[in-house]
Amino acid sequence: MIVGAEHSAAPALLTQQLCHAIQMGITPDKIHLVLNRRREDASSRLYDRTKTVIEDAGVSEFTDWEGKFDPNRKMEYSYKALEAITSHDSIIFHTDLDEFPNRQALAVLYTEIEDDICDAVQGTWVDRLAEGGKLDE
Q: What CA–CA distance (Å, rounded) separates 17 from 24?
C-alpha cells in the first residue's frame, strides 16, 4: 500500500488510514508512505506527532520530502516505492491520505485479479469527512 500525505494534515488522518489498512490485513511492513512537508514542519510538534504515528503503527518505509506540494513530484516518489516491489503477486493500493480502500467492494475484484481477468482497477473517491470537516465514523 502506498499512501501520499502532507505532514500538515497528517496525524489525525494518518492514524485513521493506518488503522484501516491494518484492519484490512495489510501488515505495516507492506505500507510505504510518501510524505510531503513544508520547510517549517521539520521542527514542529506536528512533524513530531506524525513521526510518532508512523513509528507506533510499525511502518518503517516512508519517503519524506520537503518543499511546496507538487503532484508530479509526489508521483516520482510513489513510482520509486513501486520499483521496490518485486513480487508479481502483489496487489497495490495507491491512495492519498484521505482515500480509504473499501474491503468489501474490493473482495469481488480479488478473484478477477487472481484469474488474470484484470490487472488494474480505478477506484472512486468516497468522502470520509462529514459536514463541517469532522471525521465520519
A: 11
DSSP states along 21-65? HHHTT--GGG-EEEEEE-GGGGGSHHHHHHHHHHHHHT--EEEEE
**Residue whose C-alpha is closest to residue 26's, from 68, 67, 59:** 59
User: Cα(84)–Cα(25) distance, rounded to whole angstroms?
Assistant: 20
Q: What is the reported pTM?
A: 0.69
Mean pLDDT of the chain: 77
Cell 482497477 found at: 121
Sole residue written with cell 508512505: 33
In which region does residue 51 sit, left (phi positive, over 0), alpha (psi from -120 to 50) or beta (all else)? Answer: alpha
- Write the pLDDT tens digit of every residue in 72-101: 888 888 888 888 777 766 667 777 777 777
User: Please, which residues have CB within 8 angstroms of residue 98's CB and are 6 or more apart in sequence?
Assistant: 13, 17, 128, 129
Compute the chain's Rg from CA coordinates. Answer: 15
